[in-house]
Design a protein that fits this description.
Elements: E1 7-10, H1 14-25, E2 30-33, H2 37-44, H3 55-61, E3 66-69, E4 80-83, H4 98-107, E5 116-119, E6 139-141, H5 150-155, E7 160-164, H6 173-180, E8 186-190, H7 191-222, H8 226-234, H9 255-270, H10 275-287, H11 290-300, E9 308-311, H12 326-333, E10 339-342, E11 356-358, H13 362-366, E12 371-374, H14 386-392, E13 397-399, H15 407-412, E14 416-418
Parallel strand pairs: 1-2, 1-4, 2-3, 4-5, 5-6, 7-8, 9-10, 9-12, 10-11, 12-13, 13-14
Antiparallel strand pairs: 6-7
Length: 423
């Protein structure tokens, strides 16, 4: 290897594309490999199948360092190759590792003997040690991308967690050079520790989410306001200013659900107590239908043929993903009722709801609605005028879990405003 190593990414899904763009932005020549020629061709022409803030601009700016291909032979020029395909999961959080195993089997013979193979896809403990390959590696690297912030986190990681057969040995030069260019701590550890570290990070996040949801539900019943309590918690050094304490509609997106399912499976097999994990799963399932409960209380059984407006279909803001989205669960529960929906990125699919109309704007969706439900906290929804909503709607119910509208202004405009954690 002379100069900077060439970095390859095998699997052009959300994970691979964002990681590739960050590597190019750090000055490395990168290859994005995918066995699908149509996908490689589309990427070469600048057509991205995923949406993330800053991603398209970065690929355009650093395009001279990026090459896409569906030819395995091109991987032979790489010094480091990441397996970077997103692991598919079902609605219960169970992972299907078959595509990852097939990709590794296809890619490995094409690599040089001194090429470093790194599994970036999330896999369960024990997976990477089971890969037998001579030469450097394989290694496992924990990915900590977040939908809606994926490119930024790929470009500016907090740390690198690297699993290897012997963490006391130095990393291969090519991999070390690449990782050190990001100027963050590098934490080598054994395979199983690294694989479990990713799940551990997510379980701590789940614990915060579950705590926030549990206490927010209590606030609603006793007249407290969770948003008033959160600043006090963040000033406690044992909790911290970056603690995730926002109440929500249960776990979604697939990654957290997968990690809980993995913990339950491993814990049950080893005889470990997974009661806390199962409690988090139960809490998530219950919170998913918070908005539906409010609709039943206020509109569904009190109005003739109620029209419901749903604002937001993505599972969170700044992403196109609808994996386990609470909005889709709500649409399924509202099948007997006409629904108008708006989302700035997501195009509704025909099977989601038989009486669904997707509109071009949020206000168009709200026109004539008996209730408006804000299911995704897109920043643009903060600009909605309560007075204009009152004038446009037939009813007066706004179910706004994340508090996108100012409650005082909403009430002053004559709306009944419901948000998570507020009595």
């Amino acid at each position: 290897m002379s100069g900077l190593p060439k970095i390859g990414y095998a699997g052009m899904s959300h994970l691979g594309i964002n990681s590739l763009a960050a590597a190019a932005a750090r000055g490395f020549e990168v290859l994005g490999f995918d066995p699908d020629p149509a996908l490689s061709g589309a990427l070469s022409e600048g057509h991205l199948p995923v949406s993330e803030p800053g991603l398209a601009d970065s690929i355009q700016v650093h395009g001279e360092k990026i090459h896409f291909s569906s030819d395995l032979a091109d991987l032979g020029a790489c010094d480091v190759v990441y397996i970077s395909f997103d692991v598919p999961t079902d609605d219960q959080g169970h992972s299907d590792l078959t595509p990852i195993e097939a990709l590794i089997a296809a890619v490995s013979p094409a690599l040089r003997a001194d090429c470093v193979l790194v599994v970036l896809s999330q896999v369960p403990p024990g997976f990477t040690r089971g890969l037998n390959r001579h030469g450097s590696g394989p290694f496992y690297q924990v990915e900590t991308l977040v939908f809606g912030r994926a490119y930024d986190r790929a470009l500016n990681p907090e740390r690198f967690i690297i699993g290897g057969a012997d963490p006391s040995q130095p990393l291969p030069a090519a991999l070390a050079t690449f990782l050190e260019s990001f100027h963050c701590p590098i934490l080598p550890m054994r395979y199983e520790s690294a694989e479990l570290a990713k799940i551990s990070i997510n379980l701590c996040l789940v614990a915060s989410v579950t705590t926030a949801n549990t206490l927010a539900a209590l606030c609603e019943r006793i007249g407290a306001d969770w948003s008033e309590i959160v600043p006090a918690l963040k000033l406690d050094a044992r909790i911290g200013e970056y603690a995730y304490l926002g109440a929500g509609l249960g776990l979604s997106g697939g990654n957290l659900e997968r990690d809980l399912a993995t913990l339950v499976r491993f814990g049950d097999a080893q005889g470990a107590d997974m009661g806390a994990v199962r409690a988090a799963q139960a809490n998530s399932a219950q919170r998913r239908y918070w908005a539906l409960d409010r609709l039943h209380e206020t509109v569904l059984h009190r109005a003739d043929a109620p029209m419901i407006a749903v604002l937001g279909l993505a599972y969170k803001e700044s992403t196109h993903s609808t994996k386990n989205s609470p909005a889709l669960a709500l649409l399924d529960a509202l099948r007997p009722f006409p629904v108008r929906a708006f989302d700035p990125l997501v195009t509704a699919e025909g099977g989601w709801h038989p009486l669904l109309t997707q509109t071009a704007t949020a206000m168009e969706a709200c026109a004539g609605a008996d209730a408006v439900v804000v299911m995704t906290p897109w920043p643009e929804f903060r600009a909605l005028s309560p007075a204009k909503l009152t004038a446009s709607m037939r009813g007066d119910v706004v179910i706004d879990p994340y508090g996108m509208l100012d409650s005082t202004a909403a009430v002053a405009a004559g709306l009944r405003h419901f948000r998570l954690g507020a009595g």
